[in-house]
Amino acid sequence: MRGLRMATSGKGTMTTAEIVEKLVAHRTIGRAPRHELEWIASHGRLRLIEQGEMIFRSNEIVDGLYIIFAGKVALYVQRGTGVRKMMEWGPGEVSGTLPYSRMTTPPGDSLAEEPVESVTIPREMFPELTRDCPVVTGILVNVMTDRARRFTSVDLRDEKMMSLGKLAAGLAHEVNNPASASLRHAQELEETLEESETSARALLHAELSPAQREAIDRFVGACKRLKADAEMSGLDLADREDALAAWLGKHAADEALAPALARTGATISDLDGLGSALGDGVLEPALRWIASTCSARILAVDIERVSRRISELVSAVRGFTNMDKELDVAGVDIQRGLRDTVAMLRGKAKQKSIRMSLDVPDDLPPVRGYAAELNQVWMNLIDNAIDAVSDQGHIAVAASLVAPDVIVTVTDDGPGIPMDIREQIFDPFFTTKPVGEGTGLGLDIVRKVAHWHNGDVTVDSKPGNTVFRVRLPIGGPG
User: 330-473: which CATH topology?
Assistant: First the structure.
């Protein structure tokens, strides 16, 4: 048997027999036949790694397999928010590269968080390892599969956290606008109701005739034809206010009532009819009561509108995160997922004056799969498109049935993806965004989720037209 060589940082000695006993007790590979463990003991290299020592760096080829007896090894990866610990390995586990693994360089830096005692099998010995130690090789292949699943799970979780952070910032802005408007309208409504009560008492003392009361009721009916702000430009509203203020001034009425009357359906002709029926002595208190009543009604409509907007945002968040759904495979409503995702990102798009369109047929069949993961796909693709296009750009989201698949496309009119990086955009940790703005995992997650659903994702790109196409079979994952 070949003797074990000590690392330059090691202290003390350990015989081959002692190494074999440690391998027998090892949680991961200890169940392999003793002769295979003896092969590892005779061909491996004993390493004692000091605390804080860097074992391998992200830009260096991993030198081999590490069978850990004691200590702790941690992997630190650069994420969009900084460097963070992604995984760690301790006694009874294996680290480094594995037989049949395609990994050459790690996604981050690994260092010893505690003094580490391990046996290393150099990469160049893997052909002999797989030939002479089939049971150990099978164990390591299972380890590789589990590790890939753990990496994917961590990647997906991190990308979701990044997305949720972006959403939280966007939603804070989106919800703040209608919430602030609702509070402001509620405060104005309280003042308006007080004004309405005061003017109503003044009208009671005026002892109106039946004809005068009928004229007021007729005018209030015109007031009910409310004009939403969205239906009237600022210039049109200003012109109405000026015209109404001029009419009020001619009839010795308070011109300050013009803004409230301008937002109603009342016309100058309506005011002429009211003025003729009431006379100048009653016109002022009547208009004051009418203006406050109309304002209260308009404020109530405004509060309802902004409250509905908040409710829609909450519904979109609930739908996007699927908080009320089980995590099992189920029929996924693609239309709702796309609609909720677009709603979540509309605030970010507005900041760049980007137009977003959504075209999904109502009869699109559900796709069997995981709603939360598919929503993450839509989030990543649409969010990337928003980042890619210039101000006042356009993003088109569409879905259609091309039996037996559902095809979802996200198209933007940005500058396009350069040909020299087009093959890299789906690679883990590849990003063109500045440090701190992207993890390089978004498109990797898109591809993985599409593959989980037995689908795929492709991209066609040229300046002014980039199309990401996601194909999802209706049958979903097998």
Answer: Heat Shock Protein 90 (3.30.565)
Beta partners for residue 460, in sequence order: 467
Residue at 58: amino acid letter: S
Residues 10, 132: Cα–Cα separation, whole Å: 28
pLDDT band at 11 (very low <50, low <70, confident <90, very high): very low
Tell me the average pLDDT across 380-395.
Answer: 91
d(CA 55, CA 170): 40
The answer, yes or no, to whether the previous bond of 404 is cis (omega within 30 of 0) is yes
DSSP state of 229: G
The β-bridge relationship of strands 394-402 and 355-359 is parallel
Q: Which tens digit of pLDDT belongs to each residue from 303-348?
A: 887 787 777 777 666 666 654 454 555 688 999 889 888 887 887 8
| Contacts (Cβ under 8 Å, ≥6 apart) of 171 | 313, 317, 344, 347
d(CA 338, CA 272): 52
C-alpha 303: how far from its chain's center? 28
Beta bridge partners of 465: 462
Q: What are phi and psi of 391, to 5 degrees?
A: -55, 140
Domain boundaries, the chain: 16-132, 169-309, 330-473
Encoded tokens for 184: 């402001």
Q: How many CB atoms lie within 10 A of CB 54?
A: 11
Encoding tokens for residue 17?
């027999």
- Give mean pLDDT, residues 55-62: 82
Spatial neighbors of 10 by CB under 8 A, at least 6 apart, are 46, 47, 48
Q: Are β-strands 94-96 and 54-56 bridged in parallel, bridged antiparallel, or unpaired?
A: unpaired
Integer Cα distance of 284 and 288 in angstroms: 6
Pinpoint the alpha helices (H) of 100-209.
Answer: 126-132, 134-205
Amino acid symbol at 176: N
DSSP annotation of 303: H
- The answer for residues whose C-beta is within 8 angstroms of residue 443's C-beta and 6 or more apart is 380, 384, 425, 426, 457
Pick among 2.130.10.10, 2.60.120.10, 3.50.50.60, 1.20.120.50: CATH of 16-132: 2.60.120.10
